[in-house]
Specification:
homodimer; Helicase, Ruva Protein, domain 3; Dna Topoisomerase Vi A Subunit, Chain: A, domain 2; two-stranded antiparallel ribbon; 7 helices
Chain lengths: 201, 201
């Protein structure tokens, strides 16, 4: 009895299976869906993958992903260049920009320090950040907006020790209870931080 | 303040967001992952999508997806052509073939009857199935292996009424408790079916 194999389907399933959070079952479902798409749609999908890769590069100033030499944020004359918000990735920039309230610039590290995973300072865009601080005396404040995880904290601490000697103010995002949350379900560490960081009403 | 937009990223996110079960957050995560892939990997991914679409067609006999004129199952001389197992999709064939115990052929409907969703008999490969039964007097049995859902049942019932007058035996997959399950968590309908379908030990 010949074993039934459908090589193009299996290859597609394997490709989907490499994506983060996609297990073999989901990969099979996605691969099947792509096969049932109209051909033009499938080509549009493939094209979006290739084009994104071809057109996207790193902003020469903030190291964020952009399709231009200098990203729209860094080249915007209305942005306050004296405040740099340091984040881990593009997605953090997108999340912060969604607030529509910030008039700051960013610096994207493309990762967090993690000796366990072998991620050392020279693998992040730290050199570029230090150059920005040295070249432009205009920078007054660096906001550490890395995630409140062990790696995020360690990275913020490391950078803070590098930057403070330059006479630049270094700050950290506030810890506290998320808006709309239920105190009952908030963990002790967050509650402790929220009490220590309380403000006048 | 210029709004920060990264068109190639957004297009990729939109494309991932069209896939079933992928929400905007997951789509953003997948799009970001694809951007951080090496370019060669991204091209391989895109190529798998396009190639799968180009090479896959429908088997002239069983309507299953294949990269040949006639699929390996239908063209295998060792397969028992007298038993046809009717399924909804390619994925069901793959699941049944995983048992490695079946020496039967298939017929893939590419959907299930659903007046609610506007899926009528002429939109499924029912005509092709009837042709197989009429042309080849050799077919002795048709096994209905559609899902045990309302639509799957209705489709099995509809086909059964069409096929029985041809003098071909029509059977349905057994209902019962799944192997390895816990009776406590099995629903009443399944338990009732399992008791009605009990067998001698």
């Amino acid at each position: 009895m010949a074993e039934y194999k459908l090589v193009p389907f299996e290859r597609l399933q394997e490709q989907f299976g490499r994506l983060p959070g996609i297990g073999p079952k989901t990969a099979a479902r996605l691969a099947y869906y792509v096969l049932t798409m109209p051909q033009a749609e499938a080509e549009k999908f493939a094209d979006a993958v290739v084009q994104a890769h071809k057109t996207i590069r790193y902003c020469k100033v903030c190291c964020n992903m952009t399709d231009q030499e200098i990203c729209p944020i860094c080249s915007d004359p209305k942005r306050d260049k004296s405040v740099i918000c340091v984040v881990e990735s593009l997605q953090d920039v997108l999340a912060l920009e969604k607030t529509r309230e910030l008039n700051i610039t960013y610096h994207v590290l493309h990762g967090l320090l993690s000796p366990m995973k072998g991620i050392m300072p020279d693998m992040l865009s730290i050199k570029e950040l230090m150059n920005r601080l040295k070249d432009h005396q205009a920078v007054k404040e660096v906001i550490m907006a890395t995630n409140p995880t062990i790696e995020g904290e360690a990275t913020a601490m490391y950078l803070s020790k590098l930057i403070k000697p330059l006479g630049v103010r270094v700050s950290r995002l506030a810890y506290g209870i998320p808006v709309g949350c239920n105190l009952e379900y908030t963990d002790e560490v967050t509650l402790t931080r929220a009490i220590h960081g309380r403000s006048e009403m």
